[in-house]
Design a protein that fits this description.
α1 runs antiparallel to α3. The chain is mainly alpha-helical. 46% of the residues lie in helices and 11% in strands. It is built from eight helices and three strands, in the order αααααβββααα. It has a single domain, classed as Iron/manganese superoxide dismutase, C-terminal domain (minor pseudopilin epsh fold).
Length: 209
């Protein structure tokens, strides 16, 4: 029987403060993320086609219904938490040179990329996710996906960075002020992970390893 759990956080619940509060992590990670994992485990019980599949393999099989929804949400949340680092980790705030060069080649500069990404996240209608991906043409691209979906489910490319723009990601801290949440989020992005995810995408390997 396949059992799914959220990936462990690499920081303490209060480590993203003051940008993302411990209370938000208690609800967003401790309740929302864990609920998707528990529901997915329940849905695949007794289904041998899922017995030996990891989360990524389940998504690549393009399931339907509740398995698709909960596998997508669990992967998205795992990736979101991996993209963040403690507020006091100064090294995490530095964009590695190779990554900066790739971003500059495709967006003009790191600042221009951040400006475009911020606009897409603020303008996304309803619930969903905004991603930086390595697309099928091996270019960096910003895409947004609705509800539970992601670049793997939609065959858009490999994910490198994501922001969750469901209201549960920010309502405790900034109420309905999504732009303030986005600004806070940039202060805890782990650019080391983004660089690692790019290398994983280029070698077709798992970004979590």
């Amino acid at each position: 029987m396949a059992t799914f759990n959220p990936r462990p956080l690499k920081y303490a619940e209060d480590a993203l403060a003051p940008y993302i509060s411990a209370e938000t992590l208690q609800y967003h990670y401790g309740k929302h993320t864990k609920t998707y994992a528990a529901k997915l485990t329940e849905l695949v019980a007794g289904k041998p086609e899922y017995a030996d599949k990891c989360l990524g393999a389940i998504m690549q099989s393009k399931p339907e219904g509740g398995v698709r929804t909960n596998a997508g949400q669990l992967f998205n949340h795992d990736f979101y938490w991996a993209c963040l680092a403690a507020a006091n980790e100064e090294e995490a705030r530095k964009v590695p040179e190779e990554l900066a060069a790739r971003i500059t080649a495709d967006f003009g500069s790191v600042d221009k990329f951040k400006e475009e990404f911020t606009k897409r996240a603020a303008a996304h209608f309803g619930s969903g996710w905004v991603w930086l991906i390595l697309n099928k043409d091996k270019k960096l691209e910003i895409v947004d996906c609705h509800d539970y979906s992601n670049p793997i489910l939609e065959d858009l490319g490999r994910p490198l960075l994501v922001i969750d723009v469901w209201e549960h990601a920010y309502y405790i801290d900034t109420r309905n002020a999504r732009p303030k949440y986005i600004d806070n989020w940039w202060h805890v992005v782990d650019w080391r992970f983004v660089a690692h995810a790019l290398k994983a995408a280029e070698t077709d390997s798992c970004p979590f390893q």
